[in-house]
Structure formats: C-alpha cells, structure tokens
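Protocol step 4 of 5: obtain the predicted structure for the target chain.
Materials: sequence only (see below). No template structures provided, no constraints applied. The aim of this step is simply to have a reference model before the mutagenesis design in step 5. Sequence pasted as it appears in the construct record:
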Amino acid sequence: MNIVNLSVKGNTMEPKRSLGSSEAQECDVVVVGAGPAGLMAARTLHAAGLSTIVLEARDRVGGRTWSQEIDGAFLEVGGQWVSPDQTVLLGLLEELGMETFTRHREGANIYLDREGVRHEFTGEMFPAPEQTVTEMQRIIETLDELAASIGPEEPWAHPLARELDTVTFNEWLRRQTQDTAARENIAIFLAGGMLTKPDHAFSALQAVLMAASAGSFSNLVDEDFILDRRVVGGMQSVSEELEARLPAGSVQLSTPVRTIAWHPEGGATVFSDRVTVRARQVILAVPPNLYSRISFEPPLPRLQHQMHQHQSMGLVIKVHAVYDRPFWREQGLSGTGFGPNEICQEVYDNTNHQDSRGTLVGFISDEVADQMFTLSAKERREAILRSLSAYLGDQALTPEVYYESDFGSEEWTRGAYAASFDLGGLSRYGAHQRSAVGPLHWACSDLAAEGYQHVDGALRQGRRAAEDIMHRFAETTDRPAAASDQEEHLDHMEVRHG
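Step 4 output (structure tokens):
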C-alpha cells in the first residue's frame, strides 16, 4: 500500500506521496513537534516504558529555541532566559549536567524618557518624576494583588474574570491613572516585553495571567529576576540533549504532519510527508496557531475550532549586535536600557559565556515592528542601530555582526513569543484549552500556567500531557474499548490516503 498525503499547491489539494515506508509504523504515542514540550513528553513516556515517535516539521529540534553561529558569532536566535521561578527547567538542567551563567548587570542602567532625554540610574525604579514613580508603584501593587488572588491555574474561574477579560489592558491602565508616563512604563513589561502585542489588543485578565505565571508582576518588572541567567551552549542545547537521550530514530526531522485520522474512543493514524504512524494516543506539541495546519478526520469539535481562532501570536524583532568588546562596561554601564517611545524599548547585555566580544540584544515589538518592516533592510538596520546608540553612544552604530531574529516569518512558528487570547477569549475558552479530545492531547508553553510562554512552561505541559496518557494506559492493560471499530475507521482512513 502506498501512503498518500495531502499537500497544498496553489489553491487545490493535491496528493503527495509519502517518502517513507509504504507500511505504517506503530507506537504507543506519536508526538507532533520536537520543541521542549514535545521532547519532554517523549522523555517522560519513554521512561514509563511507552514507545514514542516524534515528528518534527523543521530540520532541527528546539522549536522556538534556536542557537546559531552567524558570521562567526554565537547568537541565541530564539528563547534564552532562565529565571529563579522556573524550577522544572532548573531541575532538568541539573539532571542533564548542564551549566548556566548570569546575565551581566553591573553598572548603571539607562532610561530614555518620553522626550528622549537620557538618564542613568541604578535600583529597581525608572528615574521618573515623583508622581509617576508613585503611580507606578501603586499600579504594580494592584497587579501583584490581582495576580496573587487570581493565580495562574484557572484565571477564568475567578469572580473578576469576565470583568477583567472584557476590558483592554490599555483601558484598564487608564482607569488606574491619568499619568501617561506611568502607563507607558508599565506597558513596556507586558505589551512589549512579554505578550508582544499592543496593550489595546489583549485584556487585563491576560495581563494578570502573565504576571501570575511569573509569580507576581513585581517579578516581571525586575529584569534581574525574569532575565536572570542563560544556558551555557544556548537554550536549544537543552532540546538537543533531550533528543540525544531518546532511543535512536525516535525523532524524525523535516517531517511535517499533514493529516491526523483519529477515533473518539482512542487510536489515530498520523500522516506526514515522510512517514505514516499508527498510535494509541497523540500529543500535539506545537503552538495553537499551527493547529490549523493539520487536517483532522473527523474534524475537531466545534469548541476547538472556535477556541483556536481566538488565539494568536504577537510580533517581535529580536536584534543582535556584536562588538569587538563590551564597550559600555568601560563607561560603567550595565548595557540595560528602557525607553517606552524608542524603537528598541528594551536593551540588554547579551554577551556570551567567556566571550571577549560584547553582544547587545534589543527588542522591537508589535506595531513598532510593523513600522520597521516597511523599511528596506538597510534602512531598518540604520534605524535600529540609531536606537541602540541613543542608549549607549555612537560606538553602538558599528557592530561587527548584526542580525535580526524574526519568528513571524518562520514557517513553523509565525510569531513570538507565544499565543494569547483576544479580548474576552481567556474567560470564554481558557478552561478548555488543555482538555484532551479523544486520543488528542495538547502541550506547549502557550497553554501553561506557571512558566507561560517560557521553556519552563513548555516542559511542564509536555510532562502533563505524558502523565495524562500514562494514567489512561494504567487504567487498562487491555486494548481500548471498541478497538475493532477504531481499527476499521483508521484502516478506512489509510485507504483514503493511500
């Protein structure tokens, strides 16, 4: 039997023959996606004695973590930070024997105010007028109280959930204070720094979840906490190490999944460009905005279709500038900078472990990123470097290596850093986003409580999905009920695709 898959060509659906074996492979669980969530799921299942095959569309593991050498410089193209609250990630690093190093933070920070005036400062609070500082502290306390009361696990169940979810974070801030600078400074850490969407595009409840997932809003505004340290060798090396410890051949790269035929009572056949796999359970370890890249037969329930349409990625350009040395340190500067009205709203010293060269990383989010992409590559580079120089002087204008990370144009991500709900979506659909559908389970950082949109959250969700499957398998040592019906259905699907 030749397995045939469906691929899009132009506006028509054309059959695409599998490059793999004509016979379907079999295992207990298929994992779709070889990022931290998918690999953690596979690791957990393998340790429990369950056979697992991981299918990854990219030609690499790591998902939204990606480390590359570009023009001779090692760059963290994707996610990279480790904070003290990310206990699952920290535990895994210790177990794998991997080391971390702290981000350079000695020296004065830079703040560019609304008029573009440059201020050097130390301590936790921006050097703003006393009234602005007072308003910021009051708002932070309010958000801390809300985060503690609502929590990250079930924010949709809180009595204030709908009220907070039907007002934008921008409007909520306006209700808290008339101080424009205070609102803009607070928004840096959520709109630009985390959700990478304009603060009029997500709800106050989504903002509170972001804060609760990190332990508090105070943690989010403390860059020394949330951006504490990095992994020696890059964050992608965590996924590479996880893959290396799985049985040979468990992870199959360059293998986009096109169709999943599933039975409500259990069992599925997964059709990809290279292989076809039959399994009892499936874990989709990809972000929600990619679920629609897969055809499900039968279609997913109506609730899933609606929910997935209310989740979307943000947009950020991560800028890397490498210099012959970290020149800012010679000036007594940390390399950390904030500017609510700058092209780069955040700048940090991102120098690699034991590297004599100095690296800066800057972040350009949402609508500002839109504006940057209207420019030519040369114009965009010049504008971004001018922004870096506003913080650190003219030496920032001439890096040895310059690179822009743009996951929005990456086929198998299409945004950054994670998917979030639109206005009203979290209270409406949040309770269902992690619920299994028949043999289909969901695992990614976008669905996490603690560690939301971080590697730690991805690991937690991968382990959670694996444990859910292990629990199902433990309930019966026999084949699932209605197995003959499942096999008849899945055999029919293979005939249709082959």
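Step 4 remarks: The chain has three domains: 4-63+237-300+437-497, 67-87+96-105+316-409, 126-226. Residues 130-150 form the longest helix (21 residues).
Proceed to step 5.
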